[in-house]
Amino acid sequence: MIEEEVVGREIECAVIGNDQPRASLPGEYVIHEESARFLDYTEKYSSTGHVEFIVPARIPKTTVKKIQAMAVIAYKAVDASGLSRVDFFLKPDGELLINEINTLPGLTDVSGFPKMWEATGIPFRQVIDQLVEFAIERHRERARNETSI
Fold first, then answer.
1. Across-strand partners of 71?
2. Tens digit of each residue's pLDDT (9 = 90 or more) over 107-144
3. Average pLDDT in the 41-65 region?
4. How far apart are CA 143 and CA 145, in angstroms?
5. At residue 19, what are phi and psi to the nearest 5 degrees?
6. What is the pLDDT of residue 41?
7. Cβ atoms 7, 92 nearer than 8 A
8. C-beta separation of 98 from 88 below 8 A
9. Could you please report the per-residue DSSP string of the chain?
10. In whole angstroms, what is the distance from residue 76 CA to residue 78 CA?
């Protein structure tokens, strides 16, 4: 596969919900040590000090709103449920590109997903409670479906 290089910042946004998903404040990894530009496991999860996850990302409020709206649209487009993280590229001219949708983002104490919700005003314990409720809701919806072979 050959792709055009995208020069810009990578911004992440957490999304939670089933039919009416909500988007968190976006976050981003800030690189303090150039040798850590490639985020391997150690850099992402070991608190080396070379990188830092900042929430909210240091971007204009209008860009925050646009990221949140695009994240929800992407989430719905893949018929996601429960949780996902939508990653963006923010180009220097302000253009936003969706990079990927991570349908099973990390839920550790150092993961971006819970940090973004914490900064949005929803503590981790409440995020987990909501995820359980969304799973039960989705199970009930699917249990109503009749299937035959």
1. none
2. 987 899 999 999 999 999 999 999 999 999 988 887 77
3. 86
4. 5
5. -80, -20
6. 74
7. yes
8. yes
9. -------SEEEEEEEEESSS-EE---BEEEESSGGG-S--HHHHHS--SSEEEESS-SS-HHHHHHHHHHHHHHHHHTT--EEEEEEEEE-TTS-EEEEEEESS---STT-HHHHHHHHHT--HHHHHHHHHHHHHHHHHHHHT-----
10. 5
This prediction's pTM: 0.88
| Domain tally, the chain | 1
Asked if residue 92 belongs to a domain, the reply is: yes
For residue 92, what are its two tokens? Answer: 């220097």
Q: Is residue 91 part of a domain?
A: yes
Confidence (pLDDT) at 36 = 67
**Domain containing residue 30:** 9-143
Angle at 132 between CA 71 and CA 99, to 5 degrees: 20
- Residue 95 corresponds to which tokens in the numbers above? 């253009």
Amino acid symbol at 75: Y
Whether the upstream peptide bond of residue 56 has omega within 30° of 0, thus cis, is yes
∠ CA 77-84-62, nearest 5°, is 75
